[in-house]
């Protein structure tokens, strides 16, 4: 660093004497690049354009623009150079890779590898494998075998990424494990490299391993590995952004708080220069979905509108907007939005119309959903679409429309794919459907056509006979003669083994050996088997055989015809409303004035009869209504249970 500073100071002194010296200016630019001062270096080049022409300093200028992420400018600088040196070709390959022009990039690196022999050959092969991996991942191009020997962990890692793009996840995992071993071996040879440095270098390999686990459905293992990488705090902001995005996709609408924390990692400075366009787009989609899940409607609309402006033909932004409208119970507006998009982008109309049909079904408009589905011409003949439409029309009891769906699909296959097995299968399914809904003649017509195409098809013949048996039994008898005989249809089946097999509904008991007593019983004739005596049913205690049982005795009391409900106020009628102690039930009996031989209120001395009569009468204060003693006993029992005495 001191040497570089000394050179720079000397150049400064020299340039004060000779401002336009080309060699001195070139040295100054190189010193600034070595120091990482790319803006200052580019400023020097731009201020001395007359002296430092594009031919003289094209590489340095393009490199500064590349490092400042001015990729388009760097490409123009390289292309404007009169002489394409090896350095410019190397940089040209890097620029093309950043611009995601993978075909041109692949051709550039092939030309470099073919026409150069130096110590950088291994790096060029690594870059070439990276281009192939990018093509496989982002463009779904089947990569060609370049014949590159996996001597380094970088090459092994890139080949694993190419396999992931092809969907060969198990092979890719093995490649990544091999890359991990090679990385540990190569770094452990350097005594200055610590274990932490090795783990930091392995972070990108472990990230791809976790991604494979996630694709395989092992989300718990993937999540654990992702979190381990984040704890290492790698310096690569691109790696952190990708891992954070993948964790958000695992969380979905759950663990939203963790997802909101992970989103911050995707907003780090410089992320947009580290990731591809599709990666950045996927992150933005997930941000919009997270805003929807966290009920940030305005933020969701803003993000989805921005995405739609960037990619007007993309489906996801409009689908996110429609989903947000549905969460706000604005289904009609969501359907209108999807309808407008389908009209503007006919190429993506099928997916949009499927979503519209789903929304119509959610609203209960099954018939309108069927109309939308039938408008998707490229899917009308598909068995899945036919099945869905027939089911929906059957639910709405619109049998004619369901049969029309069958007819249109059969006609399509007759015209374009008459030999397809789907064609015959649709005819058979249509016949079964018509039979089920009473359209016998139409079903017979379909089955006859099916049988004509393959007269040896016994299954179709059996179906035809079954259909005729419902409409024309005589015709069914005539057709039954075409059935093969039972001898030709018989199969070599071991009936005993079949009946005794595991899972059989009926298993015949094996005949055991008969003992002496049992043999005598078998030989004896006329013996009657003992019957088990039936137990007599228990009768109620108050059963009276002379009285006819109540025919409604099995019904609850409230449901019987003679039930009149409970009498209200029964106890109130028994207790008088007069002065304390007075009663209404026995008042006439206690009124002495109403009886002819009533004793005097104050009995005379020596009148025994009067005394005895008066002694038999209970004073009003001591009288109790009917049922009162029992009530008192119950109350006393309750007090005893409570465990606390009165007073």
From TrEMBL:
TPR repeats by residue range: 203-236
One BP annotation, GO: SRP-dependent cotranslational protein targeting to membrane
Pfam families per the UniProt record, alphabetical: SRP72, SRP_TPR_like
Coiled-coil regions listed: 71-126
Protein location: Cytoplasm; Endoplasmic reticulum
Keywords per UniProt: Acetylation, Coiled coil, Cytoplasm, Endoplasmic reticulum, Isopeptide bond, Phosphoprotein, Repeat, Ribonucleoprotein, Signal recognition particle, TPR repeat, Ubl conjugation
PANTHER family in alphabetical order: SIGNAL RECOGNITION PARTICLE 72, SIGNAL RECOGNITION PARTICLE SUBUNIT SRP72
Function: Component of the signal recognition particle (SRP) complex, a ribonucleoprotein complex that mediates the cotranslational targeting of secretory and membrane proteins to the endoplasmic reticulum (ER). The SRP complex interacts with the signal sequence in nascent secretory and membrane proteins and directs them to the membrane of the ER. The SRP complex targets the ribosome-nascent chain complex to the SRP receptor (SR), which is anchored in the ER, where SR compaction and GTPase rearrangement drive cotranslational protein translocation into the ER.
Name used for this protein in its record: Signal recognition particle subunit SRP72
Gene this chain is encoded by: SRP72
């Amino acid at each position: 660093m001191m040497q570089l500073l000394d050179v720079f100071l000397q150049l400064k002194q020299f340039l004060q004497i000779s401002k336009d010296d080309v060699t001195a200016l070139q040295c100054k630019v190189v010193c600034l690049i070595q120091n990482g001062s790319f803006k200052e270096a580019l400023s020097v080049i731009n201020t001395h354009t007359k002296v430092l022409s594009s031919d003289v300093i094209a590489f340095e200028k393009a490199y500064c623009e590349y490092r400042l992420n001015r990729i388009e400018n760097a490409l123009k600088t390289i292309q404007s150079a009169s002489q394409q040196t090896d350095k410019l070709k190397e940089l040209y390959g890097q620029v093309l890779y950043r611009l995601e022009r993978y075909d041109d990039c692949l051709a550039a690196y092939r030309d470099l590898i073919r026409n150069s022999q130096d110590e950088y050959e291994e790096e060029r092969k690594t870059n070439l494998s990276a281009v192939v991996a990018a093509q496989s991942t982002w463009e779904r191009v089947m990569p060609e075998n370049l014949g590159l020997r996996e001597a380094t962990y970088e090459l092994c890692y890139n080949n694993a990424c190419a396999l992931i793009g092809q969907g060969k996840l198990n092979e890719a995992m093995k490649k990544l494990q091999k890359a991990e071993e090679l990385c540990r071996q190569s770094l452990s040879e350097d005594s200055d490299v610590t274990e932490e440095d090795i783990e930091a270098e392995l972070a990108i390999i472990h990230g791809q391993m976790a991604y494979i686990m996630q694709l395989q459905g092992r989300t718990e293992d993937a999540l654990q590995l992702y979190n381990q990488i984040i704890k290492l705090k790698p310096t690569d902001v691109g790696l952190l952004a990708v891992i954070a995005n993948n964790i958000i996709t695992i969380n979905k609408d759950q663990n939203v708080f963790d997802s909101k924390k992970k989103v911050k990692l995707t907003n780090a400075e410089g992320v947009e220069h580290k990731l591809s366009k599709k990666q950045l787009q996927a992150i933005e989609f997930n941000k919009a979905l997270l805003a929807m899940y966290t009920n940030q409607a305005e933020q969701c609309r803003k993000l989805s509108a921005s995405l739609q402006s960037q990619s007007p033909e993309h489906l996801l932004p409009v689908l996110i907007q429609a989903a947000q409208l549905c969460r706000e119970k604005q289904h009609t507006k969501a359907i209108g939005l999807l309808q407008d998009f389908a009209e503007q982008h006919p190429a993506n109309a099928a997916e949009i119309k499927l979503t519209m049909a789903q929304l119509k079904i959610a609203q209960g408009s099954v018939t309108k959903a069927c109309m939308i589905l039938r408008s998707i011409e490229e899917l009308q003949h598909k068995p899945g679409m036919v099945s869905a439409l027939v089911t929906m029309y059957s639910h709405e009891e619109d049998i004619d429309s369901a049969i029309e769906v069958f007819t249109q699909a059969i006609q399509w296959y007759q015209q374009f794919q008459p030999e397809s097995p789907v064609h015959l299968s649709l005819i058979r399914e249509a016949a079964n459907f018509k039979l089920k809904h009473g359209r016998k003649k139409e079903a017979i017509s379909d089955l006859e056509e099916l049988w004509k195409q393959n007269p040896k098809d016994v299954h179709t013949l059996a179906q035809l006979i079954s259909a005729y048996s419902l409409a024309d039994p005589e015709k069914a008898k005539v057709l039954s003669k075409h059935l093969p005989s039972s001898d030709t249809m018989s199969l070599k089946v071991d009936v005993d083994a079949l009946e005794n097999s595991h899972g059989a509904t009926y298993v015949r008991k094996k005949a055991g050996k008969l003992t002496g007593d049992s043999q005598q019983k078998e030989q004896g004739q006329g013996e009657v088997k003992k019957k088990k005596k039936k137990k007599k049913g228990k009768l109620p205690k108050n059963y009276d055989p002379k009285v006819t049982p109540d025919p409604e005795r099995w019904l609850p009391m409230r449901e019987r015809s003679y039930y009149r409900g409970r009498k209200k106020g029964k106890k109130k009628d028994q207790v008088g409303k007069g002065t304390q102690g007075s009663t209404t039930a026995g008042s006439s009996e206690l009124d002495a004035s109403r009886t002819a031989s009533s004793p005097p209120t104050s009995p005379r001395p020596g009148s025994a009869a009067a005394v005895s009569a008066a002694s038999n009468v209970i004073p009003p204060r001591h009288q109790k209504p009917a049922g009162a003693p029992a009530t008192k006993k119950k109350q006393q029992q309750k007090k005893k249970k409570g465990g606390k005495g009165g007073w």
